[in-house]
Amino acid sequence: MGSEGPKPVTINVTGFKKFQGVPKNPTETIVNNLKSFVEKKGLPPGVTFGTCTVLEVAGEGALPVLSKVLESGFSSNGSTCDAQVVWLHLGVNSGAHKFAIEQQAVNEATFFCPDELGWQPQQHPIVPEDGQTSRTRQTSFSTEAILKFLKKKGYDVTRSNDAGLFVCNYVYYHSLRLAERRGSRSLFVHVPPFSRIDEETQMNFVASLLEAIASSC
Fold first, then answer.
1. Computed over its alpha carbons, how large is the radius of gyration of the chain?
2. Model pTM above 0.85
């Protein structure tokens, strides 16, 4: 009980498949390779990998799958009863030149194109019982501390208050809402395409991001 050392943290990670205008999503590659990449480098002290999942780029139609994936993070590891459960969501911003730590999600789905199941909502509340589409939910992580940690490692990274109104924001809003209910924590990070920042750099960035998350728990 009084043992020293880092608090146990179970980190679950999601990325996304392809969607309109993005035939190859870098986050699919990152998430599929992350476990073996980080285990080779060595996990940060106290950190356990939970689940690594690549999600369909879809909102309402994929909600049952998303809910199942998020709930699975609480049973993926036997130590979760005393470990801090974290959800790290990765998405691509095809116009970006740097990494972006998203501080919040908004209760609005206004999709610029149909999702992969053909849904294209406009000014639609993600969770109607949460009220207005202007309602926001913030991450409980200190994004400033995470930003400082990553900048010290030499990464070109910024903080953002706008996760977009597409599927990234949709998933983040649901994840932040669940985090509040279940005492877990959630963070969304946007990455650029591999044509802007290469795959190896992005893999190393996400490995460093796991360290930053662990040090913030």
1. 16
2. yes
| Distance separating alpha carbons of residues 95 and 167, to the nearest angstrom | 16
Rounded-to-integer distance, Cα 38 and Cα 75, Å:
21
The residue assigned the tokens 């880092």 is 6
CB atoms within 10 A of CB 63: 14
Which residue's structure tokens are 């990455």?
191
DSSP 28: H
Distances (CA, A) of 19 to 54, 56, 126, 170, 197: 13, 9, 20, 15, 20
Non-local (6+) Cβ contacts of 141 within 8 A are 185, 187, 213, 216
- The per-residue pLDDT string of the chain (217 residues; one tens digit each, 9 = 90 and over) reads 444 567 899 999 999 999 999 999 999 999 999 999 998 988 888 899 999 999 999 999 999 999 999 988 886 544 445 789 999 999 999 999 999 999 999 999 999 999 999 999 999 999 999 999 999 999 999 999 999 999 999 999 999 999 999 999 999 999 999 999 999 999 999 999 999 999 999 999 999 999 999 999 9
In order, the DSSP letters of 119-139 are ---SSB-SSGGG--TT-EEE-
C-alpha 181: how far from chain center: 18
Nearest partner of 12 among 39, 31, 27, judged by Cα: 31
Determine the Cα–Cα distance for residues 186 and 141; give it in Å rounded to an integer.
8
Spatial separation of the C-alpha atoms in residues 148 and 154, rounded to whole Å:
10
Q: CA geometry: angle at 128 spanning 108 and 173, to 5°?
A: 45
